[in-house]
């Protein structure tokens, strides 16, 4: 694998159409997909804010022709996005099960015990660390959103309310908080300065420690047309090839990888210090690297066909909704996820198509979706109104949701899943 020298992250210039790769510093010249203008996907609107101005930002995604990192420009700082956040991991039963299974796996594989130190970056509400605590393993969470960190603390999980990078890592290492296991699920894509983040992971890791990170796999995003996973909170869209380059530049080696079904298809990478000779590179890494190379992920032309697929999905979803509404059918949404807001805003879907949506998260109930202003209710609203169709916005949880909401079939309601293309389930 060729090595690309990665320069420090450079903030985009103020000149329109002149921005730089956050990994290697090259000028970004190639569009991956342009989803128009959209508000921040977690900026839910209160009733008092309905008649106030909302800020919209471009969802114009570029791909670097040097390191092949797919990325958004930084229009809003992480402090503005994540200091108070509306996503609580514990509201998904399947995600809790995923976290529990991961805990059991790594405890056994790496021999973690009461003398080990587990640190999680972006620890959210303690959804993962609680399972290590139950096994008596010391933990530390690092979470920038104070409102979510407080929930973790009520569970007895020690949590530092800070953004992660070299400075935070150095502070923690200085007081003996280096990690035997450093976990970071669905956060690598959320950091604008990816080099600072990975350099911090290097600092916080013990000499024989292991890093695990999970992130949506760019290969799955392209192959399965998952354009709605693009939103301002996701700065980067990652392949194994690109992540290997970034990690190698900071003295870290990826020695194993797993392909997961979560979030529509994710990778879980296992990394260690490059000088740690106790861990050999697995066959899974070699095979996935070869598959990405064969598919064209180190060739800029590979990235140019995605935008056409996205437009087709938009047309098909609108055709279905228009047809259903002309027949007098009622449509409700299920969920208020970030991906749903990208989908609805890009397609121009508002209350003229969807009467309302529901969500289990009390933080979102009583508010309105950003941009589209579709109202968010408790799931009990479904039973009250008995819609003809239920549009599942967090389609990555479709099996869990269809099981939980199976009672809607009693009145003939059908489930609609929009990605990779419209599918209707009786």
TrEMBL record:
InterPro entries: Methyltransf_Zn-bd_dom_put, Methyltransf_Zn-bd_dom_put_sf, MeTrfase_14, SAM-dependent_MTases_sf
Gene Ontology MF, one: methyltransferase activity
GO BP: methylation
Claim: Transferase is one of the keywords in the record: yes
Annotated Methyltransferase putative zinc binding domain residues: 21-82
Domain C-methyltransferase: from-to ranges: 262-420
Keywords: Methyltransferase, Transferase
Record protein name field: SAM-dependent methyltransferase
Organism: Brasilonema octagenarum UFV-OR1
